[in-house]
UniProtKB/TrEMBL annotation:
It comes from the Bacteria. InterPro entries: CAP_dom, CAP_sf. Keywords: Signal. This is SCP domain-containing protein. Residues 52-165 form the SCP domain. The lineage of its organism: Bacteria, Bacillati, Actinomycetota, Actinomycetes, Micromonosporales. CDD domains: CAP_bacterial. Gene3D superfamilies: CAP (3.40.33.10). Residues 1-24 form the signal peptide. It holds the Pfam family CAP.
């Protein structure tokens, strides 16, 4: 059985509404229906995603991102929302955006959000994000200083990933 997967990237060019969020869709490679579920916990995947994100940044001349608790809270909430509802979206049904989620968690200056679902390893999700211009732009925004990552498993057994980047 083949499955399709989309990725979206949203990045405000500034909190002052200088631009609109960038979005992209990237298909994932097909997996067999009997592919085993990831054996890693959400916390393990979150840690690996941060490590691999910082490796990509270092390889491209950007500084290391520090893990921020507030951005992590916002990211986990987003991943839980997607896993619970099965909706793969940056904007919740009530209109809540990653900027609003970040502010609600106590973070003032978010810079962008990457989401993905279905990738079974951190390598797969980072490879997909780096192959997508909008996701890559969020990861390689050298002005970003912080990151929060969330992972939650859906009822389908697949992980839902979120990265939120920030300027603080």
């Amino acid at each position: 059985m083949l499955r399709r997967l989309a990725l979206l990237a949203a990045a405000p060019t500034a909190l002052l509404a200088v631009g609109t969020p960038a979005q992209a869709r990237v298909p994932a490679p097909p997996l067999p229906a009997n592919a085993p579920a990831a054996a890693l916990t959400p916390a393990q995947l979150m840690s690996e995603v941060v490590t691999k994100t910082n490796q990509e940044r270092r390889a491209n001349g950007c500084g290391k991102l520090d893990v921020d608790l507030e951005l992590t809270i916002a990211s986990i909430r987003q991943s839980l929302y997607m896993a619970r509802t099965g909706q793969f979206t940056h904007v919740w049904k009530d209109g809540t955006t990653f900027v609003a989620r970040s502010h609600a968690a106590g973070y003032a200056q978010p810079s962008g959000e990457n989401i993905a679902w279905g990738y079974r390893t951190s390598e797969e999700v980072l490879d997909a994000w780096m192959a997508s211009p909008d996701h890559r732009e969020n990861i390689l925004n050298c002005s970003a200083r912080s990151i929060g990552t969330g992972v939650a498993y859906g009822n389908n057994g697949l992980p839902y990933y979120t990265q939120v980047f920030g300027y603080e």
